[in-house]
Amino acid sequence: MHRLRAASLRGQQRIEGWFVEGPAEDVFVLAVELNAKHGLPLSRKDRNAAARRIIESHPHWSDRRIASVTGLSPGAVGALRGAVDMPVAPLSLRVGRDGRVRPLNSASGRIAASQVIAESPSASLREIASRAGVALATARDVRNRLRMGLDPVPPKLRAAEADCAAVAAPGPTDSGTVPDQSGVSFENVLARMRRDPSLRMSQTGRALLRLLSSQQVPDEEWRDLVAGVPAHRAVDVAHAAQLCADRWLKFAAEVRVRRVQSEDRAPEDGGLRRLSPGA
Fold first, then answer.
1. Where are the beta strands (DSSP E) in the chain?
2. Beta strands in 88-182, from DSSP E residues, in sequence order
3. How far apart are CA 63 and CA 95, in angstroms?
4. Quick one: how far is CA 142 from the chain centroid?
5. CA 47 vs CA 36, 65, 76, 179: distances in Å
6. How do the pLDDT tens digits run along the chain, 279 residues long?
7. Angstrom distance (rounded) from CA 252 to CA 244
8. Which residues, 6+ apart, have CB-to-CB distance to 260 below 8 Å?
9. How many whole angstroms separate alpha carbon 167 and alpha carbon 170?
10. b vs e for 5-22, b when ≥16 Cβ sit within 10 Å of the residue's Cβ?
């Protein structure tokens, strides 16, 4: 932006540049990353402002990934994340610099591992880890804790899980429903997807639409479902719902990563199309 302004003040009619295709949020990330690596270093104020903007546009990115883009330390990014007023509930998953999706709190994974062990006591550690979506070390620790008669989730993780739930729990409005803070309703998004031939004409697309349509439940029906849960099954139902929520969050994060990776695959110039000075 500044170099373009300087060229304009000098009276230049053409400049050398790059065309970049993609969402404005991703283009901003690329601009910050490029500016952090060459030319006049960004000031601390500029890097903090860039990190805040990336936290808001890419909340699923880990602190280390954002730090690698902005030139800040992961600790500084973490402090900024806590100060950013996010319009949506915190995610339970983050995408790291290597593109892998990791949970912020492994409580749900430990619970899933304990359920796998209960269902298949003779299962190997690799099978437990694969079915529960946890690391081998976590599967081993869960099995050892169960053998000793302990809770599969250590007290510290239980406390962290409770803190996350308290932060994420939205307050009811006067009508008893939670307002749509995103500005776009689920019904409108689903309607747009149903009109997309690339989804309607493929088997996997139709399966995805069916899954999402099954989530289209009115608030009063959700309340009826809550009231219909037997007291002795409340814990199991809550765990199952949390595992489903975590699975959808992981799916959402992986879809975003897949989009970014597909845009990064390229031509050898890194996906940028060069504009010659005479163009």
1. 17-19, 93-95, 101-103, 273-275
2. 93-95, 101-103
3. 9
4. 26
5. 9, 14, 10, 33
6. 778 889 999 999 988 888 887 788 888 998 888 887 777 778 889 999 999 999 888 887 888 889 999 989 988 998 888 777 654 445 555 556 655 555 555 677 788 888 889 888 888 998 888 777 677 888 899 999 888 888 888 877 666 555 444 444 444 443 333 334 444 577 888 888 888 878 888 888 888 988 888 888 887 888 888 888 888 888 788 888 888 887 887 787 777 766 655 655 544 444 455 554 444
7. 12
8. 26
9. 8
10. eeeeeeeeeeeebeeeee
pTM, 2 dp:
0.41
Q: How far is CA 23 from CA 27, 52, 223, in A?
A: 6, 18, 38
Tokens of 200: 């309607």
Q: Cα dihedral angle (110, 114, 120, 124), rounded to 10 degrees?
A: 40
